[in-house]
Amino acid sequence: MQNALQERINQANHIVVFTGAGMSAESGIATFRDPGGLWQRFSPQELASMDGFLANPERVLEWYEYRKKVITEANPNAGHKAIAELELRCRDLGKEFTLVTQNVDRLHQRAGSVNVLEVHGNLEENKCSVGKSDCEKPIVDAPANCPVCGALMRPNVVWFGENLPAEVFAKAELASQDADVFISVGTSAEVYPAAGLPLVARQRGAYMVEVNPDETVQSMYFHHTIRNTSAVALPEVLTMLEGDV
Ligand code: BV8
To answer: What residue owns the CA closest to ligand 1's atom 58?
Structure first.
């Protein structure tokens, strides 16, 4: 089975990697649905939705400040670094490489990944919670209130019930349609429309690889399963890419 994966990776013109919270578990950042995960302790509706924000903005902003602190103290792990190296080597070998992440922690960028499609936004930037046309675009180190309309600023993440950034998600869909190898890492694949991306790739004939210590609702759609953690599995996947660069 290892050879089949190695062969597919080296024959591929376009490799897509799709990551979820499990990617950052070995950096010490809690996932959402694992035992002890964020959604076990906090309700997503209360904390990751506009209704929750409007009901109690202080609580939501405090929660995100807590998560930002955890992220600031975390470092990219060997899995993040392997993906950044994979992007570099694919480019040198003339292969297309697309990284799509549901994560908002920007550890991929801190590990050196350059082209990152953040389908659920990021925690580094804040934007106006009202967002009229002339309000500030998302900014880092934002003030508490929108300099234009005075409304509270909020994290530039996609909350439940909110649309994903259209342009970013369209690019992620196109990449999934075009993928020769689609590697899904550390996601329970329960949150749509992002969780639809592996299904698009599968439908279009991609060779599907799942990196996850546990089975997921989508495991049956994968040709190759690596039941291991991302920080262990991804450096091994990287060694499969041949070609001296
Ligand atoms: C939308 C950002 C259109 C914020 C997140 C009712 C009304 C509206 C919409 C819906 C509705 N009912 C359902 C929906 C759709 C909804 C949805 O899918 N809900 C689910 C829960 C059923 N989706 C939405 O609302 C989306 N928007 O549909 O808009 C619309 C608009 C208006 C009206 C109708 C429709 C928006 C979804 C985005 C929500 N934002 N995050 C924040 O971070 O605070 S979601 C959140 O979940 C994160 O982004 C996270 O990445 C994502 C997915 O979770 P995972 O990453 O997979 O993490 P999880 O913990 O679940 O799994 C971790 C995995 O890692 C596990 O499998 C584990 O085994 C594995 N693992 C653990 N350790 C390791 C590991 N793997 C590898 N290595 C390890 N070491």
So the answer is: 21
